[in-house]
Amino acid sequence: MAPDPWLSMYDSTCHIAQEIAEKIQERNRCQRNGENSMKLNVTIRSLLQNLKVKIDQLKDLLLRAISTRHITQLEGDRRQNLVDDLLTRQRQLEASYKNDGTEPDVIRSNLMTGGVKRGVTNPWLLEETEETSGLNFGEIRQQQQRIIQEQDAGLDALSSVLSRQKQMGQEIGNELEEQNEIIDDLTNLVANTDDKLRSQTHHVKMVDKKSTSCGRK
To answer: Ranges for the T-SNARE coiled-coil homology domain (predicted)?
Structure first.
């Protein structure tokens, strides 16, 4: 199956969000250590703008796919949830970027639990789960990709079932049409036989009448 352009774009957008989170952490460390962070700030601003553009493109493509019924409603809802999650991450990243970096950086456990510590907002996740505990950004991203692949596989299986049911419905419809044609043929045959029978009965009566008349003479 060819890669879905929308899912490919979503994957690259998640990668941008991850990169922004890492750059913000690096910027904060530089500022606390008294190092120049101007270049990092420029990079982060550029990445944030790119993230916004990507999310807007995902929303437009999703709306187009739904309106043209290129995807199912179920898949459309799933992808809308993914876009909503990206929008939440975008707002968190923008809030983290606006922090001047003078506050101590959050430890990783706080970053992953989605909490707020000393004014620093979690730039990546809303809540730590057992599945993500102990995982780094790359591993979390791989886990998300596996979940998406499993969901896609489930949708493919559902599509296959629906396709078979549609084919069975068409075959049943064709069979009903054939049965109706046979019934029509039988009806016509019975009607023709009935007409012939009435004609023959009438003919026999006429012959019998003539025979009776001849016998009387």
So the answer is: 145-207
